[in-house]
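In this supplementary section we document a worked example of the pipeline. Step one takes a protein sequence of length 216 as its only input; no multiple sequence alignment statistics are reported here. Step two produces a three-dimensional model, which step three serialises into structure tokens for compact storage. The input and output of this example are shown verbatim.
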Amino acid sequence: LAAIGQVSSFIAHELKNPLSAAGNALFLLEKKTHMLPELQKYIHIARDELQSCFAVINSVLQLNRVRDPVMSQFDLALLLNNILERYFKHLPVELSYEFNPDPFFIQADQEQFNMVFQNLIKNSIESNPSGVRITVKGWVEEGKYKVLFCDDGVGIPEEYHSHIFDPLFTSKGFGTGLGLTLCKAILQRHDGDIRLLPQVKGCCFELVWTVKKIKI
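The serialised model returned by step three reads:
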């Protein structure tokens, strides 16, 4: 698995340069052919496919960055607000949270947890692009952090539940199928796990990881 990770990371890095060059060429071509609608249509198709390639590459690179956690203490509410502001500001998503204690300071690798919640929020938005509500609840129980991340989207069909954390599996017909795989790998690095809870409507994930003292 380590060797596969190294090879996939190398391939991803090597692909980024030629794909970037192709993207730049399309940009210049688009500027020169703006009066030719038929050519513009094909340029847009090529540009969209390039973006799909970059999405796969970035997911592979993220998966290979799941190193041992560098622990720090940070406010989970602040992390969520920063993710919304940075990545999803103009999308129809409403997020609320309930933490005990509040503010809810957690111990984890902040960069890795940024990836976890970025992927979870992205999945929720894609489940209902017209507008989705997300609720996050967090507390500490028996030396474990516990967080429930739930949305009111369309949910995941029951027949897919046992496969959602498998690499490259997606029930949406698009995307890389690596987002939830990345989430699980990160939680396991924190001596924890993530699982999908039974839900009548939407999706609800339970995240659990161990409370550890930070070495100073």
